[in-house]
TrEMBL record:
Belongs to the eukaryotic mitochondrial porin (TC 1.B.8.1) family. This is Mitochondrial outer membrane protein porin 4. Gene3D superfamilies: Porin.
Length: 275
């Protein structure tokens, strides 16, 4: 993406989403990443959720203009994603599919202009789902929208619009979503290199209900990050992440629901290793 190009529509409000939700995991997760001499990346992931265990093994190969991502999960499903960069000037294409789901094939194309970004997606089946999103502006201020059209029912299944603002210290966004049924406002303020604060407010027009979440992220030292969040629903969460070597870290998550006094707090542990 060019240095002055606007971000894709999916990036509007992403900084607040990451601050308030990223790394909050309330299960047990283990990830092992290894690199071969040829540059191929191998990743093994295991997830224990309640009494069930899920796992997958993936390989990622990065060529000069091609990225191939292959994943096999514990249900014997094979997912493949092939990304071709520089397919044409300022454009890239992604083909993805899953075996044995023959209806999962999808083609994505992204085009980046100095003042616009266009993303399109079409399912590779007889009655595909069509997705289209676009943003215009600059990397600091941009607005855009997205629509999804289901050819099977000949109907729009999604249409959203939003505007985003980013600079070195502040990131803000206003998004009209859920087919115009709700309005989401987000704000992130970077106080300094170690501390950030963020908030999200959602207004639902159908029932005139408001909900909000506030959170923070603070680096205690170069290797330890503490995150907190609080919501109007009475939930309070915390994440402590410690990196003991480059790209290898352990993450502890906890959440307490003040309205569920008979339930225990939710706890989670994630371990990521990259030799």
């Amino acid at each position: 993406m060019g240095s002055s190009s606007p971000a894709p529509f999916a990036e509007i409000g992403k900084k607040a989403k990451d601050l308030l939700n990223k790394d909050y995991i309330f299960d047990h997760k283990f990830t092992l990443t290894m690199l071969s001499a040829a540059g191929t990346e191998f990743v093994a992931t295991g997830l224990k959720k309640d009494d069930f265990f899920f796992g997958d093994i993936s390989t990622l190969y990065k060529g000069q203009n091609t990225i191939v991502d292959l994943k096999i999960d514990s249900h014997s499903s094979v997912s493949t994603k092939v990304t071709v960069k520089n397919l044409m000037p300022s454009a890239k294409a992604v083909i993805s599919f899953k075996i044995p789901d023959h209806k999962s094939g999808k083609l994505d194309v992204q085009y980046v202009h100095p003042h616009a970004t266009l993303n399109s997606s079409i399912g590779l089946n007889p009655t595909p789902l069509l997705d289209l999103s676009a943003t215009i502006g600059s990397k600091n201020v941009y607005l855009g929208g997205e629509v999804s059209f289901d050819t099977a029912s000949s109907s729009l299944t999604k249409y959203n619009a939003g505007i985003g603002f980013n600079n070195q210290d502040v990131s803000a966004a206003l998004i009209l979503e859920d087919k115009g049924e709700s309005l989401r406002a987000t704000y992130v303020h970077t106080v300094n290199q170690t501390t950030s604060f963020g908030a999200e407010l959602i207004r639902r027009f159908s029932n005139y209900n408001n909900s909000f979440t506030v959170g923070s992220s603070h680096s205690l030292d170069p290797f330890t990050v503490v995150k907190t969040r609080f919501s109007d629903s009475g939930k309070a969460g915390m994440v402590v992440q410690r990196e003991w070597r480059p790209k290898s870290h352990i993450t502890f998550s906890a959440e307490y629901d003040s309205k569920a006094v008979t339930s225990s707090p939710r706890l989670g542990l994630a371990l990521a290793l990259k030799p």
